[in-house]
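Thread amino acids onto this structure.
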């Protein structure tokens, strides 16, 4: 199968852990303060756990006090796409991997300078790659 063809649900289920599948493919959310990266401070790059696309730099990570990894900007303008999420009786901005369309988390307008944004991302949506 070409890398340009979308994966089937069965392929995603085979490749992802049940928790990753629930979050990445079913728009789930992990409980606060339980994910691997909420208190992670190493220098490197955070990538999509589903497809490996580079998403965030550790230099943009900050402690938001929310219990989820938080970033004030994506790695670049093409890394993360946004769409309106009206689930759970709220209107929010969902963050998705631009490459594979997997759910990452949400974007809120309460972050620090220079952007004022807070990308609130599920740890299960990420893999970390240390800087060499």
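Threaded sequence (132 positions):
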């Amino acid at each position: 199968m070409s890398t340009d063809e979308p994966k089937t649900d069965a392929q995603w289920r085979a490749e992802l852990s049940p928790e990753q599948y629930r979050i990445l493919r079913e728009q789930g959310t992990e409980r606060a303060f339980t994910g691997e990266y909420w208190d992670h401070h190493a220098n490197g790059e955070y990538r999509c756990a589903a497809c490996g696309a580079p998403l965030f730099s550790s230099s943009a990570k900050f402690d938001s006090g929310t219990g989820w990894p938080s970033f004030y900007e994506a790695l670049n303008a093409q890394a993360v796409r946004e769409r309106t999420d009206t689930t759970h009786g709220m209107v929010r901005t969902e963050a998705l991997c631009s490459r594979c369309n997997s759910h990452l988390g949400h974007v809120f307008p309460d972050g620090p300078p220079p952007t004022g944004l807070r990308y609130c991302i599920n740890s299960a949506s990420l893999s970390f790659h240390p800087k060499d």
